[in-house]
Amino acid sequence: MLSSLLVANRGEIARRVIRTANRLGIRTIAVHSEADADLPFVREATEAVPIGAANQAQSYRNAEAVLAAAKATGAEAIHPGYGFLSENAAFAETVLDNGLIWVGPGPAAIAAMGDKINARNLMAAAGVPVAPGTHDPAASAEAALAAAREIGFPVMVKAAAGGGGMGMAVADDADRLRTEYDKVRAFAERMFGDGSVLIERYFPRVRHIEVQILGLADGRIVALGERECSVQRRNQKLLEESPSPALSPEQRRDLLAAAVRAGEAVAYRNAGTVECLFDPAAGQFFFLEMNTRLQVEHPVTEAVFGIDLVEQQLRVASGLAPTFDPEALAVTGHAIEVRVNAEDPKRFLPGPGAIATWTEPAGDGVRVDAGYTAGNIVTPHYDSLMAKLIVHGPDRAAAIARLRTAVQDFAVAGPKVNLPFFAELLDNPEFLSGDYDTGIVGRMR
């Protein structure tokens, strides 16, 4: 096992990684911006290094500052968490070139999956189903229109280099397509430095289901079940659960097998997620993208399999076997996670501020991964995620009942908070039935 680890992230995921590394006796190094100096992850690490101003480009996205901190502290490895530099193939390459261990997949796999068009083509060649769409970037609005007419409206206009639900728009006719194409292209150039645009069929009623994979040190790819991620706002997830209530045993078997093929196609190592769209009417799933990092929602997989995914990441990076038997995996019960964000529960607009009250729920099957506590300030510089509330129960109904109580017991005052939305969702007949899709939040508003 490696001896020291720098966590190149912040908030709840930095705290989450540090917690496991501390348990394993690994010396932990936190890096932080000026705005985050008082957050829990900073004091819970063995050492902490300030790396810049609140602006992401000057701190958490500053590769030179992160590497300088690693060298100054004698860190053996870097864990990128999610977001920021986690899916930056050039940064991963630089980490390795500097003689450090990268806790994640190799740069080649990150680069291969970082472009949605390239990823689609690779997956199709590997026998993974993909939705009808373009095999090359649409170089102009007219090219996009020609592709849309061949695919059939409505279509999704997507930034090929995008991620996290950003750089996406739906077009249901030619005029809307021209408008959205220009918007997405400009957004992609500004945010990702790559204006390539993908045109793909849009499914009006679809579910978002993903598979957690783990590429082991010996080269095997293991599928650790699926997660249902269809409760979303602005194409970004709010609630995730495992197992998905949508899949039959046969559909689950086929989905997991396809995810393994996806990992094998790029010789994947470490933790990753194969995201798919599932058409419940046709009973078909299609590859969406692969996230080459640990996901925000990884705790629901940990709950139903009883394993620590961060520990498995560290073991793979150290060349060690997993702590579980890959041939004897079994799901136990049902888990649900909700993202507790500093945003209003109606329009989901950010509402940062100083935290006056922070009381976390507790009890059997209840877990909170929090990045903040009372007295901290949620600033507007970063994502609005404050904490993740995870529950586990013997079945879905029990998990929902446990979550309903935990949401009521989670007290936050100061910043705006979306907990009232979850209280509403957990009484929604469509959600309770399990027969819901990515449009459920829109139908509630």
Structural summary, described in words:
- The protein is of the alpha+beta class and 445 residues long.
- Helix content is 34%, strand content 26%.
- It has 15 helices and 20 strands.
- The strands form five sheets. An eight-stranded antiparallel β-sheet has the order 13-12-9-10-11-14-19-17.
- Helix 7 (141-151) crosses helix 8 (174-192).
- The longest helix has 19 residues, at 174-192.
- 51% of the residues are buried.
- The mean pLDDT is 96.
- InterPro entries: ATP-grasp, BC-like_N, Biotin_carboxylase_complex, Biotin_carboxylation_dom, Biotin_COase_C, CPAse_ATP-bd, PreATP-grasp_dom_sf, Rudment_hybrid_motif.
Briefly, what is this?
The chain is an alpha+beta fold. The chain has helices at residues 11-23, 40-44, 63-73, 89-97, 107-114, 116-125, 141-151, 174-192, 249-265, 298-305, 309-317, 396-409, 419-425, 429-433, 440-444, and strands spanning 4-7, 27-33, 47-52, 77-79, 101-102, 155-159, 168-171, 197-201, 207-215, 221-233, 236-242, 270-279, 284-291, 334-341, 353-354, 357-359, 366-370, 377-378, 385-393, 411-413.
Q: How many helices in DSSP terms?
A: 15
Rg calculated over all Cα atoms: 21 Å
How is the main sheet built?
8 strands, antiparallel
| Strand percentage | 25-35%
First-to-last CA distance: 49 Å
Number of strands: 20
Uncertain residue segments: none
SS-derived structural category = alpha+beta
Helix content: 25-40%
The backbone outline, from C-alpha atoms, is: globular
Round the mean pLDDT to the nearest integer and report it. Answer: 96
Strand order of the largest sheet: 13-12-9-10-11-14-19-17
